[in-house]
Amino acid sequence: MFDFRPDESLAPAELHRQLVEAAAALTEGEPDGVANMANVAALLWEFLPDLNWAGFYRVAPAKSGGEELVLGPFVGRPACIRIPFGQGVCGAAAASGETQRVEDVHAFPGHIACDAASRSELVVPVKRDGTVVAVIDLDSPSPARFAEADARGVEALADLLADRI
Ligand code: SME
Fold first, then answer.
1. Is the CB of 68 under 6 A from ligand 1?
2. Span 2-50, pLDDT tens digits
3. Which end of the chain has fewer CB atoms at under 10 Å, N or C?
4. Radius of gyration of the chain (CA)
């Protein structure tokens, strides 16, 4: 039905521009956040080479009160379900509201190894009215897979998704 398959020889900035354009088209007018996260996880997987996990953690109620990150739609191996704010790369992004670009996950204090193959990671918070509502998490089996350009591209995607998830 949809064929957004990208040309992987494109420069990263153009690849990211096309990714955001495809995500905008796919989520336009669709109020169901789960459906939109599922399609965007699939798009990330198709557009960005050399990933072993791509998906979302949402800010949701913790079992014991308060809030934490809870696994959302993704592509990749089954992953840890709940991540407290401040723990691991995802929890650091949620707690700080800042993008986390980690060249070597083994050197990141408290990194949570969901898939032992992961070597580098990019986590971008999705903010609505300044509040983190989710994070986009990308893992790669290659060290230092994610450049500044990837961070900027995924931040543009997060901006688009703020009121669509
Ligand atoms: N590595 C992440 C946990 C999520 S998985 O990578 C899917 C972290 O340290 O927060």
1. no
2. 677 777 788 888 899 999 999 999 999 999 999 999 999 999 999 999 9
3. N
4. 15
Q: Report pLDDT for 89.
A: 97
Bridge partners, residue 102, by sequence? 121
112 lines ligand 1 (CB under 6 A): yes
CB burial of residue 48 (10 Å; 0-12, 13-18, 19+): buried
- DSSP-assigned letter for residue 105: G
Q: Which class is domain 12-161? A: alpha beta
SS3 132: strand
> What is the number of helices (H) and of strands (E) in the chain?
4, 6
- For residues 148 and 101, the answer to whether their CB atoms sit within 8 Å is yes
How far, in Å, is the centroid of ligand 1 from the Cα of 110?
10
Q: Is the CB of 83 under 6 A from ligand 1?
A: yes
- Residue ranges of alpha helices (H) inside the chain are 12-27, 33-47, 88-96, 148-161
Distance from C-alpha of 104 to C-alpha of 113, rounded to nearest angstrom: 12
- 90 vs 12, which has greater pLDDT? 90
Whose tokens are 């983190």? That residue is 132
* Domains in the chain: boundaries: 12-161
- 57 — phi, psi (to 5°)? -120, 135
